[in-house]
Amino acid sequence: MAEKIQRIKGTNDIIPGEIEQWQQLEQVIQTVMTRFAYREIRTPLFERTELFARGVGEDTDIVSKEMYTFTDKGGTSLTLRPELTASVVRSYIQNNFQQTSPTVKLWYQGSIFRQERPQKGRFRQFHQFGAEAIGSPYPETDVEIISLFWEILIQLGVSDSVTLKINSVGDEESRNAYRDALRAFLKPGLSELSETSQRRFQTNPLRILDSKDPQDKELTRDAPRLLDYLNDSSAQHYRTVLSLLESLDIPFQQDDRLVRGLDYYTHTAFEFTSDALGAQDAVCGGGRYDGLIGDLGGSDTPAIGWAAGTERLLLVMEALGKKVSEPALDCYLAVLGEAQRPVAFNLLREWRAAGLSCDTDLQRRSLKAQLREANRQNARFVVILGESEREKSMVQIKFMDTGEQTEMSFDAALKKMMDTQ
Ligand code: ATP
Ligand code: MG
């Protein structure tokens, strides 16, 4: 026997029995996005590496160690997308979206690739869905986009198990002031910080607050708080966001260590986490990125967005017992004898077009085996077409709930099945 080929570690097959949960989630996402007037966008699975190096940031975990990067035959460095904001912004600039409307609201979903150590809730090919609102600097946009994700959680029945954590990193002026204060605070203990944090002390000191290293956490415990360094307009922006969230009854926790270290991030930063998950508890991350579009060659345009992990949200749903049932088969058509097949196929075509889910035997099996298959699939009706039935243009129809069986015309059988849907 030839050797069996296994899938790549960190990737998943989403098989029947699981796909139903995905479809339900995707349905809710699409419905809520449409209600909030966001339009779907689909961009390529791979882009020039430079897009992510600039759009995500060289100093991030994603770019420094997680990307699937390769050189194609033309010698161009390409990368499988490790997130979607950079691609959406690239597309926004390339397609001149700013000409269509002052605020462009987009949503997406699809595969994401990151070379990480696979574990529960952490894969190498996974899925995200997300939303971006491009063009408005005002805090009401921040609130709209946060409430969009909150509404998806409500529709899925999981909002009680998810917590919104929020912070503000202010505008450039506020962040510069804070960066100086943070450096001054960290300087005396600099050599005790982890290697990465020592490097980030120069490049990106805000990200040190984000470090998972226990020693770093200890050393930064009493670090100055970003909120104390917000200038008036940044503080005002943040206050408006929080008060609008309150008026919408969206619960939140302020988390002054929630930072985004790159220069293009401004003002609101947020994350949704769930206790229903283990160590990988983040279901969604987002924030304002007023500097990104300019950094990627567009004209300066304010924007805010979030991205949610589909697998993690499905884990939350599973932990809370939100399972949808598998699809039911309406009709199993058992066919006896080759000569009946053209009629059988025409019946199937008509019944399927009418909206019934129908299956039939493709193994040329006995009636007994076909009935067993109908049972296995939990068919609501079994319809039998043999030679004598076909000659009279009739079928036998068996009601699987009562076990009763009668003979009917083709039309009557269809009507019966439709009436009891
Ligand atoms: P984490 O801290 O868990 O590594 P992250 O900060 O890298 O998350 P983002 O880049 O903000 O995550 O991506 C948004 C969401 O995508 C996360 O909140 C999470 O739900 C999901 N996610 C991120 N990485 C993975 C992965 N490797 N496998 C599955 N889901 C992931
Ligand atoms: Mg990560």
Assigned CATH class of the largest domain: Alpha Beta
Helical residues, percent: 25-40%
Give the mean pLDDT. Answer: 95
Bound molecules: adenosine-5'-triphosphate, magnesium ion
> How many strands, which pairing sense, and closed or not: the largest β-sheet?
8 strands, mixed
Number of strands: 16
Walkthrough of the structure:
The chain has 421 residues and is α+β, with helices and mostly antiparallel strands. The chain has 2 domains: 19-171 and 231-319, Bira Bifunctional Protein, Domain 2 (BirA Bifunctional Protein, domain 2, 2-Layer Sandwich), CATH 3.30.930; 331-419, Anticodon-binding domain (Rossmann fold). It contains 15 helices and 16 strands. It has helices spanning 19-35, 49-55, 61-66, 85-94, 139-156, 172-186, 195-203, 214-219, 232-247, 292-295, 310-319, 341-353, 367-376, 387-392, 410-419, and strands at residues 39-40, 46-48, 69-71, 77-80, 104-113, 125-134, 162-168, 253-254, 266-274, 282-288, 303-309, 331-335, 358-360, 381-385, 394-399, 405-409. The strands form 3 sheets. Strands 1-5-6-11-10-9-7-8 form an 8-stranded mixed β-sheet. Strands 13-12-14-15-16 form a 5-stranded mixed β-sheet, sandwiched between helices. Strand 9 (266-274) and strand 10 (282-288) form a beta hairpin. Helix 1 (19-35) runs antiparallel to helix 5 (139-156). The longest helix is centred in the middle third of the chain and has 18 residues, at 139-156. The model has no long low-confidence stretch (mean pLDDT 95). The structure holds adenosine-5'-triphosphate and magnesium ion.
